[in-house]
Amino acid sequence: MFLNTHFPKAKFYWYEGKLYDWSQAVLHPMIHGLHYGTSVFEGIRAYGTARGPAIFRLPEHNDRLFHSASVIKMTVPYTKEAVVAAIKQTMLENGLEAAYIRPLLFYSYGNLGLVPKASPVELTVGCWEWDAYLGEKSLQGICVYILPWRRVHHSQLQMTAKLGGVYVQSTICGLEARAQGCDEAVFLNLEGRIAEGPGQNILIVRDGVLKTNDKSESVLEGITRTSILEIARDLGHKTKVGPISKEEFFAADEAFFTGTAVEVIPIVRARDASDPNQTVKDAVIGDGRPGPVTLEMTKAYKDIVGGRNKAYERWLTYIRD
Fold first, then answer.
1. Is residue 86 part of a domain?
2. Which of 37, 40, 85, 245 registers the highest number of CB atoms within 10 A of its CB?
3. Is residue 1 part of a domain?
C-alpha cells in the first residue's frame, strides 16, 4: 500500500485513461523508464481563485511536454487536447482547489535493451497539495551551494527538454547542497558561469536591471522565468538576458530563484565550492535580505496566479469552466 503522507490530499491518479486509487500500484517493475530514466514530464501548478482552481500557463506546459517527447523520440499516443482533459479530470476528481500537477510520459513495459523498441509510450497524471517547495522559511531567503560539478552542457543534450534521466544530476547535487548545510544547489556551466539550480532558473538585480541567462548557458528557459521577465517589463523594470559570471552573481543587489515548484524564492547567501583547489567561501547577496524587486515580483506573481490581475487572465485555465 502506498500512503499519501508526502502527497497531501492526493486521492486518485490518472493512468492510461483510467483513475486509480492513490494507494494502488499498476506499473510493472521492469518498465523501461524506471531503469533508464526514459521519461519526460512537466511540473504545473493550479491556484485557488474566486472562479475556482486555475492552472497557470497550461498550454505552454503542454507544448513543452510534447517538445520534450520529441527530443527523446517518443510518439505520443495522445493529442494535446487529451492531455489537457486528463489533467483537468485528475484535478476535479481529487477535489483540489490548489495543487502541483505532474504529467509524465514514459517508455513502459516491453523490453530492457537501451533502445525501447518494444516499449510503448504511456501517460500518467498525478496532483496533490504542495505549499512552499523549500518550506515557509525559504520566503525569507535561502543559502545556496555553488557546486564543484558543472551542469549538463547544451552541446551534450537539448536542454530545452525536461528529460527524466537528466534530473539524476539534480537529485545528487541537491542532496549534496543540503549535506553542506545549504538550502539548495547552484550549477555553473562548463564555461564557469552561473547556470541554474537543480530545477530553478536564477535571476539577479543589479543597478535596477533584472537579468537572467538563456539556453546558451546550459539552462532550461523556464515558464516561470519567462513570465517574470514579462511581468517585470510591464512594471517598468529594465530586463536583460545574457551570461552571468560568478563575480556578477556575488555583486548583485538581489538574486532569486524562479520555477513552478519554488515560484519566486530569494537567494540571500551563497557558499562557493566551485573550485576544488580553493577553500570554500561564504558570501552575502545584497544586504542579506529579500530585496524590493524580489518582493515586488513575488507579490505580482501571486496576484496573477490567484486571478487578481485581470491583465494576465490569458495565463489561467479554469478547470470548472
1. yes
2. 40
3. no
Q: State yes or no: is 162 an active-site residue.
A: yes
- Enclosing H/E stretch for 41: strand 39-41
- Residue 250: how many other CB atoms lie within 10 Å: 17
Amino acid 65: pLDDT = 98
Is the model's pLDDT at 94 over the cut of 90?
A: yes
Is residue 89 packed enough to be buried (19+ CB in 10 Å), middle (13-18) or exposed (0-12)?
middle
pTM value > 0.90? yes
Selecting among 88, 162, 211, 246, the annotated active-site residue is 162
Rounded Cα gap, residues 178 and 170, in angstroms: 12
Mean pLDDT of the chain: 97
Residues in a beta bridge with 256: 203, 266
Full domain range(s) for residue 293: 136-305
Contact 31, 109 (CB under 8 A): yes
CB-based burial, 105-124: b 16+ in 10 Å, e otherwise:
bbbbbeeeeeebeebbbbbb
Give the residue-averaged pLDDT of 140-151: 98
Q: Where do we find the cell 518494444?
A: 118
Letter for the amino acid at 129? Answer: E
Q: Is residue 168 a part of any domain in this protein?
A: yes
Quick one: pLDDT at residue 1?
72
Give the count of beta carbons closer than 10 Å to the beta carbon of residue 50: 8
Q: Is the domain of 111 the same as that of 158?
A: no
| DSSP 8-state symbol, 266 | E
Q: Among all chains, which residue has been given the C-alpha cell 515557509?
A: 136
Each residue's pLDDT tens digit, 5-36: 999 999 999 999 999 999 999 999 999 999 99
CATH code of 275's domain? 3.20.10.10
Same domain (yes/no): 104, 159: no
Give yes or no: residues 124 and 18 share one domain. Answer: yes
Does residue 314 sit within a domain? no
Read off the pLDDT of each residue in 286-292 and give the average, rounded to a whole number. 97
